[in-house]
Design goal:
Blueprint: E1 2-7, H1 12-25, E2 31-36, H2 47-63, E3 71-74, H3 82-88, E4 93-95, H4 96-107, E5 111-115, H5 118-130, E6 137-141, H6 156-170, E7 175-178, H7 187-194, E8 198-200, H8 201-214
Parallel strand pairs: 1-2, 1-3, 3-4, 5-6, 5-7, 7-8
Helix pairs in contact: 1-8, 4-8
Length: about 250
């Protein structure tokens, strides 16, 4: 089984960190193919960054189809471009947020998602509501810019731990979901410290993707996720046309 793990931001070190976490939980025989978008923002913090990141991510998905992969994982907790990717691909595509909250729901009645900045908290809270977990989950921001998670001297880990402690004390959280791909390497240590399940979206997405492939299931191509209709795209977006128009 070949899983494409695609980072929609352009920071290679974050891709490499996520790939290590993915390979640590992947089943024997599962190959993790890590890819970094070649165009877009260095990190994704809010709706604007996410919108700008989507074209580069879709280009990577499209260009790597020839080599073949059995499922794709969008490696951003904002589930950046997930719906568009499901339209583009003929294989299952999963996102970190959807995978993580679904996994947490198996483990706890109430859980808290701890993410980075307030602007990301609002976006993720909307996703949690959309995924039907609004009554069970609270989303918290720890005031950490994403790229500070790549800097061990930034104090980001201390901020994250403080927010987790508030979630446990104030929210009655029975489990914690780490709301950023850049936190993926911290899950097991934090679980050991706090004694509650700590769900990492990267690991959860790998296991969800493996399950779908093993079950022989893929994205429905009826209605919502039907392949894009052929039409002309103009200007700098010309290369993103789903397929060339017939003469």
């Amino acid at each position: 089984m070949r899983l494409l793990l695609i980072n929609p931001n352009t920071t290679v070190s974050m891709t490499e960190k996520a790939a290590i976490a993915a390979r640590a939980v992947a089943s024997a025989g599962t190959e993790i193919i890590a890819a970094t978008s070649q165009m877009g923002p260095a990190s994704i913090e809010g709706y604007y960054d996410g919108a700008i990141a989507v074209p580069g991510m879709l280009r990577e998905l499209k260009e790597r189809q020839a080599a073949g992969y059995d499922a794709a994982i969008i490696c951003c907790f904002d589930d950046t471009g997930l719906e568009a990717a499901r339209m583009l691909c003929d294989v299952p595509v999963v996102g970190l947020c959807e995978s993580a909250v679904a996994t947490a729901a198996f483990l706890a009645q109430r859980f808290s998602v701890v993410t980075t900045l307030e602007r990301s908290r609002i976006l993720i809270d909307n996703l949690v509501q959309r995924y039907g977990m609004g009554g069970r989950a609270k989303v918290r921001a720890s005031d950490i810019p994403v790229l500070e998670l790549e800097d061990s001297s930034s104090g980001a880990i201390g901020k994250l731990r403080a927010e987790i402690e508030r979630a446990l004390a104030d929210d009655g959280a029975e489990a914690i979901v780490l709301g950023c791909a850049g936190m993926t390497d911290l899950a097991r240590e934090l679980q050991s410290i706090y004694g509650v399940p700590v769900v990492d979206g990267v690991a959860a997405a790998v296991k969800q993707a493996e399950a779908l492939v093993s079950l022989g299931l893929s994205t429905s191509k009826r209605s919502s996720y039907a392949s894009p209709l052929p039409k002309a795209f103009s200007g700098t977006m010309r290369d993103f046309a789903p397929m060339p128009l017939l003469a």
